[in-house]
Task: structure prediction
Amino acid sequence: MTASDAELAATAERALQRLRAASPLLSAQLDDDAVAAQVARVAIASDFAIATLARQPSLLSTLLEGQAHAFALPPLDPGNRGDWQALLRRHRAAESTRLVWRDVLGLDAVDATLAGTTALAECCLQAGLAALEMDFVERHGVIRDADGNAQRLVVFALGKLGGGELNFSSDVDLVYGYDDDGESDGPRPLAAEQYYSRLGQQLAKLLDEVTADGFCHRVDLRLRPFGNAGRVAWSFAAMEQYFQREGRDWERYAWQKARPVAGAAAAGERFLRTLRPFVYRRYLDYGALDGLREMKAAIAAEVARKELADDIKRGPGGIREIEFLVQALQLIRGGREPALRERRLLPALSALVQAGHIEAQAGAALRDAYRFLRRLENRLQMLRDAQTHALPQDPLERTRIARSLGHDDWANLRAALDLHRGVVAAEFGALLAPRRRRGGEPAALAGYWRALPEAGDRQALAEAGFTDAAAGDSALRDLARAPALRALSDAARARLDRVLPALLDSAATSPQPDAALRRLLPLLHNILRRASYLALLDEQPAALQRLVDVLARSALLGERLAAHPLLLDELLDVRVGGPLPDREALFAACAAALVHDDTEAALLALNESRQALSFRIALATLDARQPAQDSVRQLAWLADAVVAVVLRLAQREMLAAHGSLADARFAVLGYGSLGGEELGFGSDLDLVFVYEAAAAAQSGGARPLDAARWCARLAQKIVALLGTMTAAGRLFDVDVRLRPDGAKGLLVSPLPGFADYQRERAWTWEHQALVRARCVAGDEALCAQFERVRDSVLAQPRDPARLRADVVAMRARMRAELDRSDPARLDLKQGAGGLVDLEFLLQYLVLRDAPLRPSLRLARDTPGLLTALCDAGTFDAATCAQLRHSHALLLDAGLRCTLDRRPRMVAPSAQVVAACAAIAGACRAHGLAFDRAGTRVEDA
Result:
């Protein structure tokens, strides 16, 4: 036996002797060798547990029976008022000993121990508050809201209690809040602040005060607004105002884990929802790293000053660094990604890994390190119920800790600890390390920028690679004179002075330096007051480079970024490089806006989602990560989702204003590029509205409407909401001229009337439009009825000669009015052999052949129509391949023009000429001489 083994044996034996002397019951139980062995293992780990067993001898029997659930706290009532403190302290000691027993004997993992310690603190807080409230009600009455409902104090837990991961002998960080000001209604009334402050102080004393039975929980109230200098209890309104005006970065970290643990929990959760914008910004918030660096520096100074290198909480690679790392990433991205708003550390870490913000291997290493450190922390505290995080210096204590954790000796434990701390320190250091740009800071451009507006030589721009250095110099001097720039804080100005030369350098080496700079400056003007965006570009050189790359290649995306800087977040979203959302995911993202009861807030949220998703699709198109046909289909799906949400919002408003319309059905039809699932960037929506309701039906609200007017108002609301300007722009422009009888017709048609019009009075071009029409939102049964109407109309026999003449005539009119082709450029959409020629060809063939070929009546999109016609034998295999290739080529070229804000006109390259020739040839082969018809019209 080694000296260490002998010391451990002596320690255990002393503990057993103490228990035998404390109680005959314990002495008899310890005669059982198996029981004695278990108690000896616990004795090695915890003097506190042995002391509790000595004071509460009956506890051992319960532990030996394998008590897996928490002990019940004896009731605190007026009859035992003098015993409240003792009851709480004895309960806490017994329950804590149960947790020690299960932890040391391997019956619980560390996660269960932390959860048990958390639940114990919550139980004591809730019981203590309820007991004290009985006293207060008797003496002071209750405080009631405007409706006469009794109000309660809200006890918010921050820190590890808020996160549900309280360590064994931790204090509890509490903040007291309440709903409204007022006065209690008892014999000795108190104002709300005084009432709740006294109640909170008594609660802290009930738990914290050291008595003959020890303490229950140490209570720390210093995290409240203004700390010890602030009042003890705060109204929610006062707290909200404080955080808006005074809230600091460390408080965002603290309130990230906040949770109501006692009192009016529902009111507490409501307040935390209002506080969410303070904790989680709506944008990628790399400014959170500044606050973290400050906190880390303060902790590092404290560690050095107090020689806390062996502190496993605050020292290098300790628990605090894991917490800060996870919380910082949550704060940076949680405003945009709700899945990251998690109070508990390990689930938050898993969410970050799942979202791709932490690599899986690093996440696993951090999880293992966290559990190792928290288990060690608990054992340090279990030894004597001390709030310590320092590794022991005493050799025997070191041996006791090491052996109780399953290590042969202290050196073995220390080696494992150092390994975990090294992993944590490396990951944390990488998060806070300044991001160095390749090549360092461009000195010439940095000197030029810092000399503006009074000095600075524009030759620096010319030498960097800008062709129009004079224009760039003038624009940059305007920026340097901007009032918003002069109003920047020193820290923000320092960021700008780092970021702007790097932006200039990247722009200078881009494919279009002058265009990139020209598109960059409006964005910079807009983000000067938003330090978080400067932080993003400063902290993430990859985002800066990506921004310049996008600006150089896309005027449209440059405009959108300048108008809505929130889209900068998309440049760093890990999802951008992966698969784009499918139809279901697009609908889910848009439907999230419906959580807002206020229509204006819902429209803003919907528009932000639409902007972000459209931007993501645009980036995929710009980078050629997906074909244009996929992009236009996704844009149409996104529009479908937006229309579906707007329909819900409009219905919500109609119900509030006019009541419901019994048994009414309403649907929105998409025509044109929306119906054909070939929507472009910035396209408007061709919509038609249909309904079905009893002629005599009336809504049941305070201002009833008949069915026709109710549905007309609903359609008007939809059009208005889609066009409403929000901070994120408007959703869509809407064109409703394709409805029956065009601009002269009713905005909304009863479906039977729509069907009758289509069958009896519609023009051929309206049947062409019907080929691409589909139901995009509304009642499913009515949508199914529309499908049957459409099918029956397309199935009508037509005179081929007349059909051909109508189609050619309509195309001739469109060509004359809309074709912008000239000898040097071809109009991709309206020019000869362009996309509209292909659409007319396919629509003509469907209308001609659909009566005998039902399969032609199913598809709406160009690829689907081509497939149906090819399968029907209308085109041979070679023509099918040519037309598919031509459509994809022209569609892609058109989208790229749109992305760069150019008209959809291109120089007639060999590929484009061949594509147009294939479409024109197919048209001529089926008797559609669009080119000759167009010439005749122009000649006339």
